[in-house]
Write a structure and sequence with these properties.
The protein contains 18 helices and 23 strands. With 606 residues, the chain is α+β, with helices and mostly antiparallel strands. The strands form 5 sheets. A 6-stranded mixed sheet has the order 17-18-16-21-22-23, sandwiched between helices. Strands 2-1-5-4-3 form a 5-stranded antiparallel sheet, sandwiched between helices. The protein has a 5-stranded antiparallel sheet with strand order 7-6-10-9-8, with helices on both faces. Helix 1 packs across helix 2 and helix 12 packs antiparallel against helix 13. The N and C termini lie far apart (131 Å).
Length: 606
Amino acid sequence: MRYKINPLSEQELRSRARNRFRIPGTANSAGQPETDVPRLLEDLAVSKIELEMQNEHLQETRSKVEMALKQSSELFDFSPVAFFRLDAKGIILKSNLVASKMLEMDRTHLVEKPFDQFIVATQRDQMHTLMERASHFGVNEHCELVLLEAGLAARHVQADLAPLAPGQGFLLTLIDITERIRLEHQLRDDEQRWKFALDAAGDGVWDWNVQTGCVKYSSKLLQLFGYGVDEFSGTLDAWRNLLHPEDQSNFLLTMQACLSGTNPRFSIEQRVLCKDGSYKWILCRGAVFSAAQDGTAKRLIGTHVDITGRKQMELHFQKMSGLHQAAFDSLPSRVAVLDNDGLVLQTNAALNAHLQSLAHGYASEDGLIGTHYARIITALIGSQPDIEQEAMDAVSEVIKGVRPGYELEYALSTDSVEQWFLMNVTPIRDGTARAAVSLQDITQIHKDLGQSLDEAHFLRVAEAELSRAVRYGHPLMMLCLGLDPNSYTDARPTLMNNLVRIIQGLLRSADILGRAQQDTLEIVLPNTAQDGGETLASRIVSNVSACPIDVNGRLVYLSVSIGARQRFQEASYAALQARAQVALQLARDRGGNGVVLDTAGSPCLW
């Protein structure tokens, strides 16, 4: 606002009055010389005009002062911050609306009250000291105060105390900073919780100011490597020198990508040299906290996590996996592990070599992993669509848990040589819906079985063993074994073959197994007394009952009857055979699934 100023001098005021005076001359007053009357009248008129001009100026100045005072009062009253006018002793003389609201008291009631009664008691001496300093030095003083609300600390304010003219007191300005203080406390609490969480997790924290090159490390991080605060310079080069030589190049490339803004986040594993000379594996993760306008990093923050234990465990697992694969490869059977979709997860060396040897199969083991087992079955079996379909259906059902297992015998003819294989599908019971498929070469078993079950061959070998027992007085037992009638199905050959396998698993190498009749098997046990024959017969009965046989997806439970005879006076195998067959028939007549021993006098059931 521009104010009109008074004339600079009396002459100037007189000059302006004369310019405004425009009247004709008047008659002389009585008793005055004729020459002085006009001059005197002119002086009086000019003085009158001077007074009028001064009055106009004063009226205009008063209006402007009143306007400025009103504006100042409005600015004081409606200011967004709290204002207090205090006397030299800190008594409130005047306050604005925000101040009244801040202290929750009408402004008329605030007058003549000491200001320090509205702040916490512990800060009243501080307030008095502040007033003394402001009055003595004539400068503004600042501090933070806590106002009382209903007798409790409730509001934080920033106080600015400005001294007025000597003896006129102070102008106190208060700005509410309660929310800022609350956020600062919350930030400190969050930082403290974050620190506790990192300490509990064993993480170390680092903060890199790219512009200054300074890297701050938490004490937890330095403790992780055994260094004290004074033993580490805190520069990036110092940290790089602690890295394993094989990890330094990857670290530098990762940092360059992050600093350039190409990759604002990173996670790398590296080995760090500890104070004791050992290395620890560390997972280093970081992110750009502040970036320039061009995207380059100005500040990075991150953590270090000790993963040495995990790395050692991974190394152990690698060794165990290698040992597992070596043991897997040493199996003579050809084995593949399938997932729940029938895809190959793992194969052993025997299967890989077998597939490579097939003219219509795979040329190499490459590509086996992830291959559907149907392709491998095609390579294994050749052009046998019915068997292929049956095998794949069975594999799928075993994986899904529909079947407990599956076996398939098949022949493969190559270069006029016939080979027999047994495919066995077994579920892996670890909750992963996987299955193991093994192939066993049973060509020799087929040859041996065919030879041992040849009736003429068997009788010759049995007769020779009986002659040897008679000549040297050795004990000899004979078992005559037959399937019970209620176990017969339309798959009799399959049942008999499986029965032979069960029995062969219980016999000694010197024992002789053969078939003298269509539905009966006979076993000659050289150098075996009666109790040994009884024990073997009982084991055969229990094992056969406990091992169901899969016939086209149907489990068939077998039971057998056994007639047993120990040689006494028999000089021929035919005589011994006749007594054992009588005991077998008696076992069947007694309900089957049992053993009858023909002793010297009469048969004995047990």
